Amino acid sequence: xxxxxxxxxxxxxxxxEFVDFLxxxxxxxxxxxxxxxxVYLFEEEExxxxxxxxxxxxxTSSMIDTIFTPEEFEKAEWLTIRPTxxxxxxxxxxxxxxxxxxxxxxxxxxxxxxxxKQKDSFRLKKVPxxxxxxFLSINWxxxxxxxxxxxxxxxxxxxxxxxxxxxVIKNKTDLVLENIHQVIVQGILExxxxxxxxxxxxxxxxxxCGHEKYITTGRELTFRREIFANLECDIIKxxxxxxxxxxxxxxxIVSQRFYQLLVKHKLNKDVEFEPLTLV
Length: 279
Ligand SMILES: [Zn+2]
What we know:
This protein folds into 2 domains: 2-67, Alpha-Beta Plaits; 75-279, no CATH class. The chain contains 5 helices and 20 strands. The strands form 5 sheets. The chain has a 6-stranded mixed beta sheet. A hairpin with a 5-residue loop joins β12 and β13 (176-185). By secondary structure, it is an alpha+beta fold. The longest helix is centred in the N-terminal third of the chain and has 10 residues, at 48-57. It has helices spanning 16-24, 48-57, 70-75, 149-157, 256-264; strands at residues 2-10, 28-29, 36-42, 62-67, 78-83, 86-87, 103-104, 117-118, 123-124, 135-138, 145-147, 163-170, 176-185, 200-205, 212-216, 222-223, 235-242, 249-255, 271-275, 277-278. Residues 109, 111-112, 114, 206, 208-209, 211 line the site of zinc ion.
């Protein structure tokens, strides 16, 4: 795996030293007419500290993506999954967490956003135009996935375990929306995330409820191997939660078998997978 930094800055607004620093390290400068310059830079151990220093002196930062090799994907026993297609908002939008429609919010903490329990279907205004896509997440809801009917059939026929499907309701009606289904992940792992300075930017302890959650760097996530040892499912959520502000999301984790099924049926175009490191 390699770590790729994505740096964005306003063109013509940077010191020559900064731009030279990037050029000397073979950064790729995206060509565009935009006033913003996007730069991709693969991290190297020997100058990572220097990179952070120059980013700081330029009052900017980078987003990190971990780029895995095909072999790492093939060998991964478990991988996180995340749809890249974002659609709509949960309805009704007003106080959607606490208005009692989708969630039981009796244990909700407005300090960290944790404690919601889904009690009923999500409601949406409409069905997406799926095109060639099959997975989506709805805005504001980071750890729930929705799929097309075609994807639901492939997952069901593939005997994937650890999930069920739930209808999505058209807002302001009791009608079931066609061709969109929520994937309900049934299980939660034992605690086992191993935060390190490499993978975690900061750990937030909620002042109101004491709940702990993590803001990640974008580098690979490490979990204790033993929490996966006796699992008899292909999809599960992490015990730990992640996200800034009132975002409180688990990781959704799938087995190699589930990953292979999606690849085989070309359903992996609009989802991002990241192999987990198990120790
Ligand atoms: Zn809290």
